[in-house]
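Quiz preparation item.
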């Protein structure tokens, strides 16, 4: 059975505007997806270093092998930008940046960043592709700004539980909760062992071997 964790930020303590529905969104995913629940950190207990690689960035205090990279699926809900997703407490600099994040070299297969612009298309392979994918299968997010809404995590989990592929579940959850002006996006990696195109959640269908040395990266986006 797969393991999962979530982090969410509503209170940004002056670092950005506060949000309303991130807790409901992340906990909807956490409480709905079939699996072993490992961590649920919110507000001042959600830290950027939980997603960061030890030895990367300044300060180099990443703890992803304890948290984000120590589960099979992780979901973040909060503010985002092209080069980072953002937190409300300065544990180091309150931003998990693409230059500090390496995912899948420990355990993680699937990540969803429910945050604005993180997967904006321009330069995405250099930001969140080759430097980040070291065993990660699929990274879900948005090409555009997205809404602060409470239901997407639950709906995403319901589609995964129902046997949709990870990419299909994300697309459908985004389309169910956003207007056509918003664009979903995802990145995925293939390796020598097979294709992640048909990857499912654990127990719901096939999952490719970890692409620890990806041979190809794929990016897709579309209107909700």
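Solution:
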């Amino acid at each position: 059975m797969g393991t999962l964790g979530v982090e969410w930020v509503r209170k940004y303590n002056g670092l950005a505007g506060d949000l309303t529905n991130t807790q409901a969104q992340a906990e909807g995913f956490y409480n709905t997806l079939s699996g072993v629940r490992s961590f649920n950190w919110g507000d001042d207990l959600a830290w950027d270093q939980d997603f960061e690689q030890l030895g990367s960035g300044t300060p180099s205090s990443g703890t992803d092998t304890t948290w984000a990279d120590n589960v099979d699926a992780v979901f973040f809900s909060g503010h985002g930008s092209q080069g980072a997703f953002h937190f409300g407490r300065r544990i180091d600099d309150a931003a998990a940046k693409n230059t500090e994040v390496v995912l899948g070299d420990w355990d993680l297969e699937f990540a969803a960043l429910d945050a604005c612009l993180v997967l904006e298309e321009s330069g995405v392979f250099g930001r969140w592709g080759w430097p980040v994918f070291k065993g990660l299968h699929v990274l879900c997010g948005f090409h555009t700004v997205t809404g602060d809404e409470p239901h997407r995590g639950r709906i995403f989990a319901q589609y995964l539980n129902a046997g949709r592929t990870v990419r299909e579940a994300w697309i459908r959850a985004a389309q169910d909760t956003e207007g056509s002006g918003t664009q979903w996006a995802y990145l995925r990696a293939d390796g020598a062992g097979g294709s992640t195109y048909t990857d499912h959640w654990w127990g719901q269908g096939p999952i490719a071997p970890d692409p620890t040395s990806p041979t190809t990266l794929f990016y897709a986006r579309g209107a909700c």
